[in-house]
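Morning!

This is the sequence you dropped in the shared folder:
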Amino acid sequence: MPFFEFTFPLPSNFGSIFNYLYGFWLNSFLTSFIFFKLFSLTSDIKIPIYVYILMTFSLSGIFARSLGGILIIIIVYSLIFYFFLNQNYTYNPIIFFLLIGLGYFYYSTSLIGSQYVSLVSYFTGKYSTAFINYGINFILLINFGIAYFILSKMKPLIQQYSKIVISLHPVISWIVNLFLISFLVFRNIYHTQFFKVNNLQYGLTGIVYGILTYLIIKYITRYFLYQQRSVNLENEMNSLQVYTSHIEEMYDNLRLFRHDYKNLLLSLDDAIKQRNIDQVESIFNRVILPTNTKIDTQNTVLSKLSQVQSLEIKSLLFDKVSLALEKGIKVNLEIEKPITPSSKIDTIDLIRIISILFDNAINAATKAKDGKINFAFFDDQNDQILIIGNTTTEEKVDLQRLTKQSSRILTPAVHGLGLRNLRQLLSRYPFIENRLDSHNHYFEQAIIIHPN
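The structure's back. Tokens below.
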């Protein structure tokens, strides 16, 4: 088998219309179906039935016969998945989901397919070619069933690997991808007999690759998961120190205010004794009233944040709210009941999501007249919802333009900044919905965490 083999089969080459439909078109459809179905299983991307039918005409059954053809299939299919069917993933996990599906299908084929050929050739003699040709589609389905069963059992591990390794350590994930491609190279060597490889050796190699693939994914994921937990613990300790320092700082400010307040009362007492109403009014409006408002605002913020059960999130929100208040932005928090951030999202990722949303909101509200930020965090039946909105200089933000900016490059636009990073973060969690709305000089984003 050469590196490329794209000979288009003609009906005359099959002897009959039945053989042509069964041996060529049905084989091509089954191959496309298997590739797409295994990808859909591992990625959770639903593929419409019309795509299966259209891809039959891609002749994947013919392309899949050579290494060059398989590489073309991988490139073309991955681009189709990325641009037309995918709403959540970046390109890197798309490639992996496709390769892992192809990998376990071909691992199974190396064992079942090769032994089928050996057994048929041994028992049927001169009729072996006919038996092999008519049985090939059934063998495809058997191999598909084996691959589907294995991948369905591995799915939680594959999803965890995608979230932890592919998203955070892309170089490692591409090394794993190359390992998966290496079996396709070995498959081509077996079929071309570039090196002498018999059916038993080919089948055993497929088994070894299947076991190694599982172990590599498992232990790489476990290593980085432990590493991430260590980082989370360190961040939690840092957050505790930061939050404690905030409390100490507020206590010091209140103690200083208490000292200054005594002096203000003495000045106010003198003004009252002297019947100097103008001075009394000046002291009240210039010092007492603003200070009282500031203390009330801080107390309100702290009382609302006490409902957040995650120390890291609580510390982050305190930082962002304090920054907004320092910039003269009005902040309204709606966290009415105790809430624990969803365990389905990594704490570091949730911190980054909230940080991006708050930073964008502060940037926009600072430029707007009467800047204001509203933040809400609550449970709604089975969903957990995080909403942040802010005033804007524009009467209505162009959401379509904003989405295009966030999907391509970072831009200096008010809300374009950081949204690409936000999109990449959310791509790790297909169960998260991101809604955008803008009207009457107000922009709002909602992060809705569905149960699945």
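Headline: The chain has 13 helices and five strands.

More detail when I'm at my desk.
O.
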